[in-house]
Amino acid sequence: MAANYRYNCGMVVSIAEAQNRLPELIRAVEGGEKVVITRDGKPVAQLNPAPPERRRVRLGGMKDRIQFLPGWDAPINLERFLEGDL
Questions:
Q1: pLDDT tens digits for 5-50?
Q2: CA of 82: how far to CAs of 71, 72, 78, in Å?
Q3: Long-range contact list for 7-10, CB < 8 A, 24+ apart?
Q4: In 3-state terms, what secondary structure has residue 45?
Q5: Which residues contact 9 (CB under 8 A, 6 or more apart)?
Q6: Listed residue (38, 58, 35, 60) closest to 48, CA to CA
Q7: pLDDT at 52
Q8: Kind plus residue range of the DSSP H or E element containing 29
Q9: Tag placement on the chain: N or C end, fewer CB within 10 Å?
Q10: Which residue has the higher pLDDT, 1 or 33?
Q11: CA–CA separation, 64 vs 15, rounded Å?
Q12: Cα(76)–Cα(86) distance, rounded to whole angstroms?
């Protein structure tokens, strides 16, 4: 494989080479290497690892962990708030 190593220390390959070597390039990306695909020597695309899988949201996960003081939702007197009394 005639890959160059530049553009921020990643592997640089032409489009034609990327088409012929896609499984190998994917293995390199899985190993943490950045692959830049070029057309006429100019970078046009970049292969990066997929983002880590996000954990699922659990509804009610913070139940009983957050407690509000009494009156937290009481109406605010705008004049006192602007004066800094609250």
A1: 555 568 999 999 999 999 999 999 999 899 999 999 999 999 998 8
A2: 19, 18, 6
A3: 7/34, 7/36, 7/43, 8/34, 9/34, 10/34, 10/35, 10/36, 10/46
A4: strand
A5: 34
A6: 35
A7: 85
A8: helix 22-30
A9: C
A10: 33
A11: 56
A12: 9
